[in-house]
Amino acid sequence: MTSQVSSPAEQADGAGGAVVAGQRTSASPGGKEVRRLDRVIIRFAGDSGDGMQLTGDRFTSETASFGNDLSTLPNFPAEIRAPAGTLPGVSSFQLHFADHDILTPGDAPNVLVAMNPAALKANIGDVPRGAEIIINTDEFTKRPMAKVGYQTSPLEDGSLAAYNLHPVPLTTLTVEALKDFGLSRKEAERSKNMFALGLLSWMYHRPTEGTEKFLRQKFAKKPQIAEANVAAFRAGWNFGETTEDFAVSYEVAPATQAFPTGTYRNISGNLALSYGLIAASRQADLPLYLGSYPITPASDILHELSKHKNFGVRTFQAEDEIAGIGAALGAAFGGALGVTTTSGPGVALKSETIGLAVSLELPLLIVDIQRGGPSTGLPTKTEQADLLQAMYGRNGEAPVPIVAPRTPADCFDAALDAARIALTYRTPVFLLSDGYLANGSEPWRIPDIADLPDLKIQFASGPNHELADGTEVFWPYKRDPETLARPWAVPGTPGLEHRIGGIEKQDGTGNISYDPANHDHMVRTRQAKIDGIQVPDLEVDDPDQARTLVLGWGSTYGPVTAAVRRLRAAGHPIAQAHLRHLNPFPRNLGEALRRYEKVVVPEMNLGQLATLIRAKYLVDAQSYNQVNGMPFKAEQLAKVLEEAIND
Questions:
Q1: Can you tell me the distance from the alpha carbon of 404 to that of 269, in angstroms, rounded to the nearest whole number?
Q2: Rounded to 5 degrees, what are φ and ψ at 108?
Q3: For residue 375, what is the DSSP state?
Q4: DSSP readout, 332-369?
Q5: Contact, 610 vs 623, CB < 8 A?
Q6: For residues 300 and 296, what is the distance between their CA atoms, to the nearest angstrom?
Q7: Contact, 342 vs 368, CB < 8 A?
Q8: What are the tens digits of pLDDT across the range 260-314?
Q9: Is residue 400 a contact partner of residue 358, using CB atoms and an 8 Å limit?
Q10: Mind spelling out the 3-state secondary structure of 559-570?
Q11: Rounded to an integer, what distance in angstroms lies between the CA atom of residue 43 and that of residue 7?
Q12: Cα(48)–Cα(82) distance, rounded to whole angstroms?
């Protein structure tokens, strides 16, 4: 779904109506009041079989096509199919959309759609007083309520009195709307998520054509099911328009000044990363080879890349993690852009082959979509706890560059950057995303191909060294004086035969060597190559000459930036910087850190970046840590940073 955005100079404020209590109001054609808001946070929640992710995705797609800025937070149960109606089986999807630039999925929902008692119980703690709660009353019977610990009905005992409650028999209304389709009751009930989507689409004036088209395409082989879902969707819309319980609908205008001119689409982090890998292979004029083993939350990249054989992409679903990276490294040896995708447990299994790639000095991208650990940990929850594993999780001195995207859309650019480093310096590179970025989405400006970096490389084609007797030979470890990269020789090229393997190489010739001095030289050379990688200087945002700096990396960018905006709006001076390159660090990082009396590092781990900062720069960085499987909230960080400023 794409939308065109014009420049601010070309835009006009088309909203009309009076301003009441900070909200613009008018009347809809049906006579109901319409309130205009600047932003809304909606959370859909239900059983894992209720289709909450599909509902959220469709609402998000229509919101993107409408032109709002948005940010999403899907939240999946870890079990493949948890028992129905239980707390572990609750699935939710939160969407924050606005008429201005936003950075996070929002701290607390303005609207909660609860499809059953478990969904209400699991999410009510996040809902502020006065928020709207839409409840599927059909599910609030004695047994489902008892299953999650409700002794009395929350719809009747006054426990929800602080909220604007909308009891709606979603299941009954859906079955009634579909009575002419000849479906069983169970089949008809499955469309209740589309009824809820239609109701919310009416409440917030979302477009409907795209969803109807999507449903007909999704169920093209089952036209009766397709039309039933469309009918349920329309019934939800009509219910909102006609019922007296919903006397007000809301409008959130397009974010006309949030984006530069261009064509935009909604994109998730894993999809953006997939497109970035394809773009990198095309810009390098190399085939893309993915050797991978499915693992949450990285599997979507394997699924997506398998669709693009027309771009020279080959995907191999291996029997295990070790085989996946072995195949990717073999493809790199053969002259392809080798990629392997995984999460933290898979990185542990791949570590020996990553060390081999360091020794062979071949380009290889290791994409780690981080999740909660250790071991199997929290497969569907987010964390940033693989930084030290990426930095040091191999035997011997085996340095590997690390690149971390900061938003879902930034995963595209980070993939290109990681490929640039791998190809230029002949090294494996870690690309550290996480579950929050991978599954979340935001608007992405589709780039012009002419603006993408040129990543073309030159393979070795002939002898590169002259011996003392004048003989010309090929030395596989003779280095580029600027990058220290060795030549990349494609197997089968006449005259470029050379040894390959994990045993230490002799400098230049690549012959096996156990010489102590040579090993010392090669270890230091490999480290110098990584240390010499060209990365941009750190940019520090400090308009007020603050004394406190907040330093983030990866997906903390959105919550940290939102918190900084709140503090500055309240008159508190604070500086902000964000790291994309974690190995090597930007050359000016130490100088930047020492300019501030306090440095605060928020991380979704127990202080891994802060540990590196303290060790390398002897700066007393203060950690603020969270490891609950969820991203930071902006208000939470604002309080912590305000305390740091005033301490």
A1: 12
A2: -145, 140
A3: T
A4: HHTTSEEEEEE-HHHHHHHHHHHHHHHHHT--EEEEEE
A5: yes
A6: 8
A7: yes
A8: 889 999 999 999 999 999 999 999 999 999 999 999 999 999 999 999 999 999 9
A9: yes
A10: HHHHHHHHHHHC
A11: 31
A12: 7
Phi, psi for 425 (deg, rounded to 5): -105, 5
Distance CA 412, CA 262 (A): 17
CA distances to 49, 294, 341, 435 from 321, rounded to whole Å, are 30, 9, 9, 19
Q: Any idea which residue has 């929902």 for tokens? A: 109
How is residue 145 written in tokens?
């309520």
pLDDT digits (tens, 9 = 90+) for 215-264: 999 999 999 999 999 999 999 999 999 999 998 999 999 998 888 889 99
Beta strand 39-47 pairing with 90-98: antiparallel
Q: Cβ–Cβ contacts within 10 Å for residue 313, how many?
A: 22
> What integer is the mean pLDDT of 505-514?
96
- As to burial, measured by CB atoms within 10 angstroms (0-12 exposed, 13-18 middle, 19+ buried), residue 514 is exposed
Packing angle of the helix pair 321-333, 344-360 (nearest 10 deg):
30
Amino acid present at 235: A
Q: Which residues contact 310 (CB under 8 A, 6 or more apart)?
A: none
Rounded CA gap, 351 and 518, in Å?
A: 24
Q: Which two tokens stand for residue 490?
A: 């494609």
Alpha-carbon dihedral 371, 376, 381, 386, rounded to 10 degrees:
-20
**149-175 per-position pLDDT tens digit:** 999 999 999 999 999 999 999 999 999
Tell me the C-alpha distance between 272 and 415, whole Å: 9
3-state secondary structure of 391: helix
Query: Which residue's entry shows tokens 């933290």?
Result: 344
